[in-house]
Design goal:
Blueprint lengths: L2 E2 L2 H21 L5 E7 L3 H17 L2 E7 L5 H13 L5 E4 L9 H7 L11 H9 L8 H12 L8 E5 L6 H10 L3 E5 L6 H6 L3 E4 L17 E4 L3 E2 L5 E2 L4 H4 L5 E2 L6 H21 L1
Parallel strand pairs: 1-11, 2-3, 2-4, 5-6, 5-7, 7-8, 8-11
Antiparallel strand pairs: 9-10
Bound molecules: NADP nicotinamide-adenine-dinucleotide phosphate.
């Protein structure tokens, strides 16, 4: 039976660290503060936002909400982003995307000050992921995969790592962050030939393909560590991942659960990034 790499202990360690750093900043009269910018009220966004607000309060991060109606204009949203950029009391910005279709996503992303880009959406942040410079931050979900692997002391240096998925939000940055840990990384996409063999060859398999239960026993082998990034609602109405958990668990060495794995750590990465942005702003 596989070891379950639960997110809870990772979250607890990260929250403790963030709270201590918040307390140190408070002594200097600084309260790390997050701007939450939401257009409309999509159910997914509301549930993520509720988790962020709860986590922020727990570690002592302030939150300012900027809520726009779904029919808001590009100019209105850019004005809000401008306000966030200008406000020295705001250290990080969470902008919910995808934006409604009237928005020019690239232009909105480009308007955000990279120093406040705690969710890794600007090109400057992504460039930082490639170069290793601390410009902005890596996308939180990609970072969360690395945080889990490191917390559980999974060897990465020299390990064969396969990342299934190449989105800018998860797969590509995760591959780059794992490369930085000296893993030998293979990145897969929808045209990859013999995906099962490429997955089986990996010591560590990170799955971010957005296909419910698509990674089954044929892709897995004993001794592997599996990080499941996918989030779906199963036929039984329960949350599940890209990996067929019941098939994987008896085979692999260790696996992250869904829910309670990558998703929960993602929120803590976001909050920690706000604290780090506040620290960087004082440096
Ligand atoms: P995405 O933008 O849809 O990207 C999916 C990637 O998987 C694409 O690169 C695609 O390849 C690749 N892919 C699809 N089918 C494949 C196949 N048969 N073989 C190999 N590769 C295949 O999804 P995403 O935004 O990266 O998200 C991935 C999953 O993570 C989703 O389930 C999402 O809900 C979840 N997610 C979770 C969190 C969290 O905090 N836990 C955060 C964000 C996303 P192509 O590029 O060729 O199309």
């Amino acid at each position: 039976m596989a070891t379950i790499l639960k997110g809870a202990p990772v979250v607890s360690a990260m929250n403790k660290d963030a709270a201590a750093r918040c307390a140190a900043l408070a002594q200097r009269g600084i309260r790390p503060t997050l701007a939450v910018v939401r257009v409309g009220a999509r159910e997914d966004d509301l549930s993520y936002e509720a988790g962020v607000l709860k986590r922020a309060e727990k570690v002592g991060v302030g939150v300012k909400q900027f809520l726009l109606p779904a029919e808001a204009t590009q100019e209105e949203l850019l004005a809000v982003i401008g306000q966030v950029n200008e406000d020295s009391g705001i250290h990080g910005c969470l902008l919910f995307r995808p934006l409604p279709k009237q928005f020019d996503d690239a232009a909105v992303r480009a308007a955000l000050d990279p120093a406040k880009d705690i969710d890794g959406i600007t090109d400057a942040s992504l460039a930082g992921v490639f170069t290793g410079t601390k410009t902005g931050f890596a996308p939180c979900t990609a970072q969360a995969c690395v945080e889990i692997l490191k917390y559980y002391n999974i060897p990465l240096s020299g390990a064969k790592v396969t990342v299934v998925g190449r989105s800018l939000v998860v797969g590509k940055p995760a591959a780059m962050l794992l490369d930085r840990e000296n893993a030998t990384v293979t990145m897969c996409n929808s045209r990859t030939k013999d995906l099962a063999a490429v997955c089986q060859a990996a010591d560590v398999l990170v799955v971010a393909m957005g296909r419910r239960g698509a990674i089954g026993a044929d892709c897995l082998r004993q001794g592997q560590v599996v990080v499941d990034v996918g989030i779906h609602v199963g036929e039984d109405g329960k949350l599940c991942g890209d990996v067929a958990f019941a098939a994987a668990e008896p085979i692999v060495e260790a696996i992250t659960p869904v829910p309670g794995g990558v998703g929960t750590v993602t929120t803590s990465v976001l909050i920690r990034n706000v604290v780090e942005a506040a620290e960087r702003a004082q440096a």
